[in-house]
Amino acid sequence: MIVVGPTASGKSALAADVGEAFDGVIINADSMQVYAELPVLTAQPTVAETNRAPHRLYGTLSVAEPCSAGRWRDMAVAEIEVAQTAGKLPILCGGTGLYIKALMEGLSPIPDIPAAVRDDVRRRLAAEGAEALHALLVERDPVTAARLNPTDSQRVARALEVLEGTGRSLGQWQEETGEGPPADLCFTIILLMPPRDALYADIDARLATMSEEGALEEVAAMHAMDLDPKCPALKAVGVPELLRYLLGDSDLDAALAAAQQATRRFAKRQMTWFRNQIIANLTINVKYSVSLRPKTFSFIRENVLTLLG
């Protein structure tokens, strides 16, 4: 299963709850949380959270060793296989759309699907259900349909929109690179989408706390590594703004305000991406909290565990 949402929406807490309750392994799907040098600034799971369930791919690489979507995908697929072999529930958790898309759709050079086509497929999915769309796919693209679980709404809709938007099957596109998603995976997606004003307030508060808990020291230490200016971690939200303060080009209040603004803008982009690109099986329109455990756990029992048999 996959837990997604914008920054500060409570993804890590939800994943820890699910991992503990359902014998899961939590696998990072955030492009910056993969780096060891930025645990505070990238809001990596707390010690309390990692003690509740195994966590993988957090702080795995050095910032001097850039991670691409393709590399992350390979690592994530390997961790999913390890978890499945051990009889545990793999729980992908993160907010990096490119990584999530690489896992669910592969890395084939599929062109952007026209919005009108995508919206039409989603309307039909909502009205008719995944199995009806899968039946249509059986008629029009039986090879791809045979690889998909009829109830996997995300992948069924994706296959149909690619067929209608490009005139070619998803399988044909994926054959060009051999990087399609693992055929045996079926994705169940929980999306956290809190109200924007509440999310922004949480972002501002969290950034203020981070500056007191070691974020400045992390940025200073990374700057001292004399990294290649193209290093992805140097562009992590909050790093350029706090670095200006450390270099004497800004006072701390201004740097913190700039980091907060950059993070709010980043969260807005994330929300837009999830709204347009993700077909969630369950959407929670508030920040995750323990009060949502009954609803979430019930959903998982009915929609995830049943698929696993």
Describe it.
The protein is α/β, with parallel strands linked by helices and about 300 residues long. Among the domains are: about 110-180, Orthogonal Bundle (Histone, subunit A), CATH 1.10.20; about 195-270, Crystal structure of tRNA isopentenylpyrophosphate transferase (bh2366) domain (Helix Hairpins, Orthogonal Bundle), CATH 1.10.287. The chain has helices at about 10-20, 45-50, 70-85, 95-105, 115-130, 130-140, 140-145, 155-165, 170-175, 195-210, 215-225, 240-245, 250-275, 295-305, 305-309; strands at about 1-5, 25-30, 55, 90-95, 190, 280-285. Strand 2, helix 2 and strand 3 form a beta-alpha-beta unit. Helix 5 packs across helix 6 and helix 11 (about 215-225) packs across helix 12. The mean pLDDT is about 90.
Give the terminus-to-terminus CA distance. 14 Å
Secondary structure: helix percent:
40-55%
Provide the low-confidence segments as ranges: none
What's the total number of strands?
A: 6
Q: Which sheet architecture does the biggest sheet show?
A: 6 strands, parallel
